[in-house]
Amino acid sequence: MRIGIVSDIHANLEALEAVLAVLRGRGADHFANCGDIVGYGPDPGPCIDIVRGLHGWVVAGNHDYAVLGRTSAAGFNSAAGAAIAWTRKQLTANQQLFLRGLPLTSCCTPLVLVHGSPAAPAAWEYVFTLHDAEAQMDCYSESVCVVGHSHYPFAVERTAGRPARLITERSWELRPDAKYFVNAGSVGQPRDGDPRASCLLYDDRVRRMELLRVEYDVAAVQRKIRSAGLPEFLAVRLASGR
Predict the structure, then answer these.
(1) SS in 3 state form for 4-45?
(2) What are the φ/ψ torsions at residue 52 (nearest 5 degrees)?
């Protein structure tokens, strides 16, 4: 089984379609999603429909819940808040029902999925540092936790008797004596300075994880954002990956 893992699509249809094409081309036959299907971008409904059609493992993100009013958007910046208000008007009843049914955590052994942190899934915590990631490792029993939320891809490995280390390789073997904390990055709004969509491919036959970056038509999404009347900032940031 090869699992394509995505997160933080944020209603970016062009990025999602490009990522799925690459993952399928690399043999992905199952899919997992670490939340935030909607928010920021111009195609929330179509993105929900595609994710629902994958019949994979999916967890809720804070933007998914904010659109439903299940979590507060009071702490969002003005652009994010405007996108949430706009998105609420775009979704059908069935699309809202799909978001409403998403759990905060899901497991597809050896992976556990959560949007922010396994320690407090409903708190939408950000995990940015090696130290923070290592602290999270005692909060799940599976060998690998995959998250999103920060839009910044990275991976941490901890083996028995050794301090945790940041994985610098783009492809790595999952050791049987190790535990891992992996951020999938963002499909629809990368923030690590690389505008290409980010995703993961996990091959359970050889226990190998790979981080992939995928080109997509940024300009087309920018045009859609502007046409929808969403904040200009949401269009501009896509070109810089910030």
Answers:
(1) EEECCCCCCHHHHHHHHHHHHHCCCCEEEECCCCCCCCCCHH
(2) -60, -40
Give per-residue pLDDT as tens, 80-98: 999 999 999 999 999 999 9
Under 8 Å between Cβ of 47 and 11: yes
CATH code of the domain occupying 2-239: 3.60.21.10
Query: Per-residue confidence at 161, pLDDT binned at 50, 70, 90?
Result: confident
Q: What's the whole-number average pLDDT of the chain?
A: 97
